[in-house]
Amino acid sequence: MKFSIAVLITCHNRKGKTLQCLHALFNQKGLSESCLIDVFLVDDGCTDGTSEAIMQDFPQVNIIQGNGELYWNRGMHLAWETAASVKDFDYYLWLNDDTFLFENSILELIECSILSFNNSIICGITCSSITEEVTYGGYDLKHQKISPNSKLNSCTLMNGNVVMVPNYCYKILGNLNKSFRHALGDFDYCLRANKLNKINVFTSRIFVANCENNTLTLQCFNYNLPFFKRLSIFYSPLGLNPFEFFIYDKFENGLIVALKHFVTNHFKVIDFGVKK
Q1: Per DSSP, what are the bridge partners of residue 202?
Q2: How far is CA 23 from the centre of its chain?
Q3: What residues does 204 pair with on adjacent strands?
Q4: Largest CB tally within 10 Å, which of 63, 122, 235, 254?
Q5: Measured between alpha carbons, how far is residue 87 from residues 22, 40, 81, 138 in Å?
């Protein structure tokens, strides 16, 4: 019996990277013997011919049209909602379109899931193709990035670049939280899992993909930028949007801490001597 996997991707005007991501996905070693893969990809208002290129090179991909305002989290929510309406998959794999899987990565994620009795979320660890250092994955109790050490390591937070969610976990946790447009949905999902005490979140045992760091979110605290530019990034879905962060912060740390951070983060953007 083969495992069924719904691969969830959302993209916006990164045709070259999206195609490279799909090439890596469909070039996995030994995958066809053990897995049936269906890809659900949200084209969130691409104007660079992404959909046309995908239809030509990968006609098996299910393309879902977004409205151009979904960003990462809501795009992934739509992809997941669509996949779950098609059938009950054994696994749901989150995959960023700038994340390029190594040839044995999906089998590694499945093995990790089986080792944890298919009731745990597996967060893949990625590295830079330039420095080979950890870029994305799971974080320990001190919020430090976890490096692969051939073991399953528990994590308190996770990035959503490569994440395997077994059906068991999806049935309990459901979809991503639509309160978040771009960021925080992955952190929130991990936090919800950990707070339930029914689902563990582990990192992969090895690196599973190349993905370069993206530092745009914290550019709102870059004091080399003009104030109004920082403020614009801060309130943008691509920044540390204070209202969305408040929702997340309240769930993680409580109302008082969330209110405090709401104020102090504004001070950091204004640069009232409250440095990050």
Answers
A1: 122, 154
A2: 19
A3: none
A4: 122
A5: 22, 12, 11, 29
Q: From residue 205, how far is each of 45, 130, 151, 254 by CA, in Å?
A: 36, 21, 5, 33
CA torsion, ordered 52, 89, 17, 239, to nearest 10 deg: 110
Choose among 121, 98, 113, 130: nearest CA to 14: 98
Strands 157-158 and 62-65: unpaired
Specify the amino acid at residue 60. Q
Q: What is the pLDDT of residues 127-163, one digit of tens each?
A: 999 999 999 999 999 999 999 999 999 999 999 999 9
Q: What is the pLDDT of residues 69-98, one digit of tens each?
A: 999 999 999 999 999 999 999 999 999 999
The span from the CA of 204 to the CA of 128, in Å, is: 16
Instruction: Give percent above pLDDT 70 in the chain.
Output: 97
Q: From 237, 169, 251, 249, select the one nearest 202 (Cα to Cα).
A: 169
- What is residue 4's three-state secondary structure? strand
Model pLDDT for residues 223-239, shown as the tens digit of each residue: 888 888 889 989 988 88
d(CA 32, CA 196): 34
Mean predicted lDDT score pLDDT of the chain: 94
CA dihedral of 153, 157, 163, 167, whole degrees rounded to 10: 90
